[in-house]
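User: For a benchmark we're assembling, each entry needs the component sequences followed by a predicted structure for the full assembly. Here are entry 17's components. Please fill in the structure.
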Amino acid sequence: MTVVTKFPYDKDYIEKFSTERNEPDWMKNLRLEAYQQAEVLDLPKPDKTNINRWNFTNFKHGAEGEAFSSIDDLPKELAEHFDLDNVPENLIIQRNQTVAYATMSEELKEKGVIFTDILTACKEHSDLVEKYFMKDAVKVDEHRLTALHAALLNGGVFVYVPKNVQIKEPIQTVFWQEDPESALFNHVLVVADENSELTYVENYLSNNEDEETVSNIVTEVIALDNAKVSFGAVDNFAPGTTSYINRRGVAYNYATIDWALGQMNEGNTVSENVTDLVGNHATTNLRTVTVGRGKQVQNFTAITHHIGLHTDGIISQRGVMKGQTTSIFNAIGKIEKGASKANAEQESRILMLSGDARGDANPILLIDEDDVTAGHAASVGRIDEMQIFYLMSRGITRKDAERLIIHGFLEPVVAELPIEAVKQQLQHLIERKID
Amino acid sequence: MAGSTLEIKDLHVSIEDTEILKGVNLTIKGGEFHAVMGPNGTGKSTLASAIMGHPQYEITKGSILLDGEDVLEMEVDERARAGLFLAMQYPSEISGVTTSEFLRSAINAHRGEGNEIQLMEFIKELDQALDDLNIDKNMAQRYLNEGFSGGEKKRNEILQLLMLQPAIAILDEIDSGLDIDALKIVSKAINSQRKDSFGCLIITHYQRLLNYITPDYVHVMMQGRIVKSGGPELAERLEAEGYEWIKEELGIEDVTVGQEA
Ligand SMILES: Nc1ncnc2c1ncn2[C@@H]1O[C@H](COP(=O)(O)OP(=O)(O)OP(=O)(O)O)[C@@H](O)[C@H]1O
Ligand SMILES: [Mg+2]
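Assistant: Structure for entry 17:
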């Protein structure tokens, strides 16, 4: 028997939502089909975390936001994402579902770079978006949440870098869920055409302490032959937001996708990061940091999926656990038969700051090919009292000594974030959370 | 500035219920250099660690006073801010924290809130200290002690001493792992600190360090006590003859702690 799940928004609502926005038919149909699938598909089953009772149905869909007339009008919580004396040239700020601020350098426009919100892109670059949207990376019918994502998509951006275009200046986005009850079904699609290069950094934030809502994020990064993508993110959803975040890359021949993710959500979170190394000599290097606190439950799964020859996939996860939080870190290197000369390495390290917190690091290798190299390391530990003694013996208080050690523990990942202002913002967030 | 005085009286220290120090008496004043020698396992590092407040060591009897203040009542960081410094035999590695970042935190902890060191001033002082110790400038940007060679760690300890300017420093085997040139450089840096406001306790096994840093007093530890004290000539005799004659003189068979005379 199929159980049909009821959602607060029905088919008619979706049809109307799509029509009002003049979406192309393919998009409207995709939404409607996805909605039908969402009704019958199961929730995803992240290893070792049961999410069946999490809130994925209680939310409001649809909230507009006011535009910012100037970057100087930004509220404090947004302003700290930038060096205001040096505002990024390529920036989109999304407030609820509205593009509140958007700018792109003339140079990028001339070179044919596309950087626009996803709903506009569906109309103005319909063929290009249709070609990649939930095709090669994340599939609509993976489970209920991916289907629901497609059905209710209400924000996001599309980035396209044409062949042979190398962008030096980073592209930055901020997705601000200002309305405390409004859900974010955000889709980021980054397509780096052959021999192109870009750095993209995104920030998510919301303010809902008590109100419950949902974020359902899908990010797809397509790196065609010889393209190089450096992807940074800081997730900072408030305690009331239940998050499902799926970031997936597909790297073709000689392509590289590097990820640096600051996973700083305050609410329950399932975060999945997969890179399909489809092409020969494709590489990925994923680094993540997280600080868990309060009673939040989180599940982080990182996968390098080796398909081509001579692929290289490195995962390095670091987590600091406080309070009564529970976090599972799964780091998986999956090597397909025929993917010879692949190299897969995973490292997961967890620092426990409280006896009530729970952390679990699971490095997993799934190998179907003989001619490969692979390695993994995992540790779950407490702060070393000898280190504390050493730092305190130089006059540093216990609290500051702990802070320094935690900072040092996370530093290898924080240092990788490609934008200085975002790096600093992540550092502030870390400090705020461990205090 | 008149120097500080560190007084150790009848100090008894246990670790996991085994008594290791069994009544140590020692007074170090500003301007004085003391050397503590003694065979392996006789309690030298234990004394150093107990003074600094190492969490594993339990003081069961006796007292430690710094200018009359009860050191045993102080937390480790308070002891440091009161003027004590321990160059450790085995310094910890702190991944992800650069030597420079750490030094700045330590200096600011000493100076207190609102009186933080200016960045330019800090860089100037750091560069000077690095030069004095002939340390490559890049080392300050490396993570603290991580992957440092034995000798580099020791030099880094002295770098911290130069930057923090303690009143009383305890150097636990600062010469081990140093090559001959480094030994000279480090000794020179320590000698340059000789002044009324600086007292030093040097734990070493070898006369060669004391050839460069002439101590005012030399003490010999055995069985968790100071069993003999003298001037620099005592160290020279130990170098020439070893510890046998002291053992005979005092009727000691096994020098290590846990053995009774
Ligand atoms: N954590 C510990 N647990 C048990 N015994 C210990 C511990 N630390 C030190 N000891 C013992 O205390 C005694 C004194 O050790 P200490 O390190 O003070 O000697 P030391 O004089 O510094 O020796 P060395 O010259 O080899 O550095 C030794 O017998 C040592 O084994
Ligand atoms: Mg020792």
